[in-house]
Design goal:
Layout: E1 6-8, H1 17-23, H2 33-50, E2 55-59, H3 63-72, E3 80-85, H4 88-99, E4 103-108, H5 117-126, E5 132-138, E6 140-141, E7 146-147, H6 150-160, E8 164-168, H7 180-183, E9 187-191, E10 203-207, H8 209-215, H9 227-234, H10 245-261, H11 263-283, E11 299-302, H12 309-320, E12 322-326, E13 336-339, H13 346-362, H14 372-381
Parallel strand pairs: 1-12, 3-4, 3-5, 5-8, 8-9
Antiparallel strand pairs: 2-10, 6-7, 9-10, 11-13, 12-13
Helix pairs in contact: 1-10, 2-10, 5-6, 11-14, 12-13, 13-14
Pfam families: Aminotran_5
Protein name: Class V aminotransferase
Keywords: Aminotransferase, Pyridoxal phosphate, Transferase
Length: about 375
């Protein structure tokens, strides 16, 4: 059936009808008072979502561009940085650092395992000369469904005193309680196609006062991603370059929806749907790729035994028009990932699990009682 696609991936995520209608409006001028008023509201609501009084800047980029901007605006060539790497995106930030001539040291964990905060503590405590200028951590590692212990890692960074904490919060911002000011986070990057519930195209970077001090002496090359330009423009409720006007109008709509729902309800919804999904997978006797104590609220990775993950994904799309995400790099065809991020409802979880049961049976996997996955999810959702 056409036009019934259900996105159950970590991004792009489903878009509410109200935001789709906002996208369909005739564009307005980006140098008009009308657009400036929208920008003012959006900026205020972004600060609310980030739980910060500091700057939250919008760039015409994806999440990767937002993280890259968060790196290059506050560092200089040769600076020593620590990068947590336990998945595809942790690896990416190390590659970005190397591309810009930074002295990159990685702290690694096996894919599917969380980063060990003690390893960060050891490196930071040993740095008596205060040569480490930044620590980069992927909060929710989308490739594996692992939520890293950012709060503890950040405490070790704060004890160091000199280093900035730079956070990839692309699939945690808007899904998990991330109080930027309370935790003292310096740079937090995210992307519009995740918890913000709009299509790809906007990146966001929250910047602390400490980071702005580092900006003054940072020497890495930048122009379009120069956050100083965005800061000056944002203070005047405008933008340094032509923005994606309708995306921002749609963001204005979804941020209003999020404020109406409230932060506690948003975080509670993501936690509930994460738990329901994981309970369902256990009910189907399928192995979860990440342990319960480090599970991401955005994505659940599943490692099906004796069955190709991509066959499950293909049949889910063919039979039910439900899109699941696949594994990356060495996990390709080894895992599939169920997204429960952004504009996802309890009904979507139940529909996805029920469809998954049918697909598993059709592919010859019978190590479960039909209905067990749906029953396990329903029990959590009704709890």
């Amino acid at each position: 059936m056409e036009d019934k696609l259900m996105l159950m991936i970590p991004g792009p995520t489903p878009v509410p009808e109200a935001a789709l209608l906002a996208l369909a409006k005739h564009p307005i001028g980006h140098r008009t008072n009308e657009f400036s008023n929208i920008l003012a509201d959006v900026t205020a609501n972004l600060k609310w979502l980030h739980q910060t009084e500091s700057d939250v800047l919008m760039l015409n980029v994806s999440g990767t561009g937002a993280v890259e901007a968060g790196i290059i605006n506050f560092l200089s060539p040769g600076d020593r940085i620590l990068v947590g790497s336990n998945g595809k995106f942790g690896e990416r930030w190390a590659e970005v650092g190397q591309a810009y001539g930074l002295n990159v040291e990685t702290i690694t964990a096996e894919w599917g395992q969380p980063l060990d905060p003690a390893q960060f503590a050891d490196k930071l405590q040993a740095d008596t000369a205060k040569e480490i200028k930044a620590v980069i951590v992927t909060h929710s590692e989308t490739s594996t469904g692992v939520l890293n212990d950012l709060e503890t890692i950040n405490r070790h960074v704060k004890e160091h005193g000199e280093a900035l904490i730079i956070v990839d919060a692309v699939t945690s911002l808007g899904a998990f309680n991330l109080p930027v000011d309370a935790w003292g986070l310096d740079v937090v990057a995210s992307g519009s196609q995740k918890g913000y519930m709009i299509p790809p195209g906007l990146g966001f970077v929250a910047v602390s006062a400490k980071a702005w001090e580092a900006y003054k002496t940072a020497k890495l090359p930048k122009y379009y991603l120069d956050l100083g330009k965005y800061k000056k423009s944002a203070a005047k409720n405008t933008t340094p370059f032509t923005p994606p006007v309708n995306l921002i109008v749609a963001l204005h709509t979804t941020l209003g929806m999020m404020k109406e729902e409230g932060l506690e309800s948003i975080f509670g919804r993501h936690e509930r749907q994460k738990n329901a999904t994981r309970a369902a997978i256990k009910g189907l006797n399928l192995p979860l790729f990440a342990a319960d104590d480090c599970a991401s609220p955005a994505i659940t990775a599943v490692a099906p035994p004796n069955i190709e993950a991509d066959k499950i994904r293909s049949l889910m799309k063919k039979r039910f028009d439900i899109a699941l995400a696949g594994g990356q790099d060495h996990l390709k065809n080894k895992i599939f990932r169920i997204g429960h991020l952004g504009f996802v409802s309890d009904r979507d979880i139940l529909s996805c699990i029920a469809s998954l049961e049918v697909v598993l049976l059709e592919l010859g996997y019978e190590n479960f009682t039909p209905g067990a996955g749906v029953a396990a999810a329903a029990k959590v959702l009704n709890g």
